Amino acid sequence: MERTYVLVGVGAASLVALAAFVATRRASAAGVGEPEPRVLVDDLLEEISVTARRIASSTFVGPVEAWAAPEKYRASIRGAETANSLPPRLLERLLYQESRYRADIISGAVVSSAGAVGIAQIVPRWHPDVNPLDATASIRYAAKYLAQLRTQFGDWRKALAAYNWGPGNLSKVNTKIPLWLSQTPTETRRYVEQITGDVPV
């Protein structure tokens, strides 16, 4: 399985410091003739050092970064997730699935075949109370709507399916059986599976 690493400067610095500390302790112990602790093995020290250098130099980025929201939207997304008790980053991942954070989609220059518009791909016909071209308003609306769908259908996977396929359509499916998702369209199955593959709920 491929490892996912989050690049955090403090974390990298801590690993570097830990490696240096371990090396210093080893040298000190050896200098006074004390037996070397078994936990301070060469492989462990080398693993810490290599990992720290790789993180610090940003030579690799985990797949989580592929769907991360642009900086200008992150505060709004985090706030909306918190205000509506959404799992961390679920809305962020949903919005990526909807718009890929593409400027031409967010601006409304590109409209879906279903008439969905903006960052959250809202259909004005069904959601007249929000301006889908206002990214901040759409983020807040999408978070509130997703939370409502979760209350209606009982869990986040079903809420995602309803967001994609529509609550009316999902209501016609027997969602009480384990294989309920198999009764939805291929697009909806992929939608739910791809989002929850990155943000388990």
Quick overview of this protein structure:
By secondary structure, this protein is mainly alpha-helical.
Overall description:
- This protein has 201 residues and is mainly α.
- It folds into two domains: 9-61; 69-198, Lysozyme.
- 56% of the residues lie in helices and 0% in strands.
- The chain contains nine helices and no strands.
- It has helices at residues 9-31, 42-56, 71-83, 90-99, 103-106, 135-153, 156-165, 167-171, 186-198.
- Helix 1 (9-31) runs antiparallel to helix 2, helix 4 crosses helix 9 and helix 6 (135-153) packs across helix 7 (156-165).
- The longest helix has 23 residues, at 9-31.
- It starts with 8 loop residues before the first helix and ends with a helix.
Largest sheet: none
Amount of beta strand:
under 5%
The level 1 CATH classification of the largest domain is: Mainly Alpha
CATH topology of the largest domain: Lysozyme
Low-confidence stretches: 1-12, 54-62
By helix and strand content, what is the structural category?
A: mainly alpha
The total tally of domains equals 2
Total of helices: 9
**Rg value:** 23 Å
| Outline | globular
- Mean pLDDT over all positions: 82
| Total strands | 0
> What is the helix content?
55-70%
Instruction: Just name the CATH architecture of the largest domain.
Output: Orthogonal Bundle
Distance between the termini: 20 Å
Order of helices and strands: HHHHHHHHH
